[in-house]
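Treating backbone geometry as a discrete language has practical consequences that deserve illustration. Part of our work consisted of pairing the sequence of a single chain with a tokenised description of its backbone. We regard such an encoding as a compact summary of how the chain folds. The amino acid sequence and the backbone structure tokens for this protein are reproduced below.
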Amino acid sequence: MKKLNRDELLSELNDIHIKGTEFFNDASDALQGKTFSRSPRRPYARDEFWEKLPESLQSIADSLIPRVIENAPLIAESARMTPYLTQTDQIDLGHAIKGMRSALRLCRYKYWDPDILHDEGTFLGVQPAGQSDDEGISPDKALQIFEDCYRRISGIVELVNPLTVERAELNIEKRGQLSSGFQPDTAFIMMWMDPKKSELEDVYNTVKRCFKKFRITPERADDIEHDGLITEEIIEKIKSSEFLYADLTGARPSVYYEVGFAHAISKRVILYRKVGEKIHFDLAGYNCPEYTNLSDLEKKLIKRLSYMTGRETKEQAPEK
């Protein structure tokens, strides 16, 4: 990450905005006269507009997206450290960054909060939160979204004290330097945690048992003894653990964040989900098998760990 003070960060955002606006205008011109397929009941496919752009314009968008993402950690950390910016502001910031990224690929980023399903007062269940960018949009519509996201992001940066940006930069740098190093035969487990849901503890115990059969020490966030912020401890565990396991059941934002951080530092994550659980678009391209029950999860995870470690459990070892 390139070091920037607040004014330089605002200048960088402004330059992305200027070049992005030029891209959308040129893309609109390039698509004049092109034909597009669309079902009356369905939106455009994700790459409907993108695939019809000349490669030269695709390259411009592809060069802007990394600049948006590269500055996201500094903006997010600065917002987190600003007392009068709430968690709602931080969540909106994340959506704006993702919205800007998707707009540059001529698709619409959408997200939705959990929804309680009921029928005439009868509780039917909960529709979990989610997000996607599987709808293609024209350059004109994408520009409108891009403009809105730019205003939201730059508006937050303008509210941040310049000294806060400097401290945020130091925090990010410090985290990178304080990694406790690689710890072999350790596993960090990322999953939904709720003491009111005993079934989640059953899943955790099943996963722990699988790792222990391969002489791997498993750990979860609530097992960690810590003096500082739990988020910093989690980051260190993700960096140092040999194995990372994530259960995407429940679509918890914290779990998705942790998996995203692991992927950002090029670490492989073992992903699983309960049958019927949908995956957010961020991880849609990754292998994430379903399990029907705890026995099914144990069977699949043991087989996977055996392949990854080259080891066998006592149950797998052939009789002599």
Notes: Strands lie at 107-112, 115-119, 122-127, 130-136, 183-190, 217-220, 241-247, 270-274, 290-291.
